[in-house]
Amino acid sequence: MLDVPDQAHREDPLAALAALRDYVSRLPLSEFEQSDWFTLHSDLVSFLADVLIRGRGAEWNVKADPSVRRGYRYVIQATGLDGAKRQIDPYDVVEEEFRHLPIEITRMIANAEVALAVVRIHES
User: Fold this and answer.
1) Distance between CA atoms of 98 and 111, rounded to whole angstroms?
2) Phi-psi region of 57 (alpha: psi -120 to 50; beta: other; left: phi over 0)
3) Which DSSP symbol is given to 80?
4) Residue 122 — pLDDT band, cuts 50, 70, 90?
5) H or E element, residue 75
6) pLDDT digit string (tens) for 65-87?
7) What DSSP element (H or E) covers 15?
8) Residue 89 and residue 23: Cα distance in Å, rounded?
């Protein structure tokens, strides 16, 4: 779908970033049905998780959550630059991006990295 060579993607999960941004920017979001949003949500969660796990040393984990029927949710956990472990729900990160159209893949990744404290923030 994105025409990114397998070898390039295996070496760097961000190799698909430009192609994914281009693909998402051309989607007719105003015509999306619920199943389209679900598919896009799942695709972006997968990409985000891949970037964080392979690029930032994060890992999947499970967090108890009595507010959901199954009693837990899947989260991405990483050790921040300060040594503290933090978790994000990648589904929530993508959902937040959907609230601020147009979808910006780079912003989505940056928000997750900042929440996990795996990058330094340089203030001007």
Assistant:
1) 13
2) left
3) -
4) confident
5) strand 72-79
6) 999 999 999 999 999 999 999 99
7) none
8) 24
Q: Which of these, 85, 87, 48, lies nearest to 64 by C-alpha position?
A: 87
With tokens 């929530």, the residue in question is: 92
Cα gap 77→74, rounded to integer Å: 10
Specify the pTM. Answer: 0.91
Strand partners, 61: 75
The CA–CA distances, whole Å, from 48 to 20, 33, 70 equal 11, 23, 23
pLDDT computed for residue 3 by the predictor = 83
- Enter the tokens of residue 98: 């959907």
DSSP state letters, 29-74: GGG--HHHHHHHHHHHHHHHHHHHHHHH--EEEEEE-TTSTTSEEE
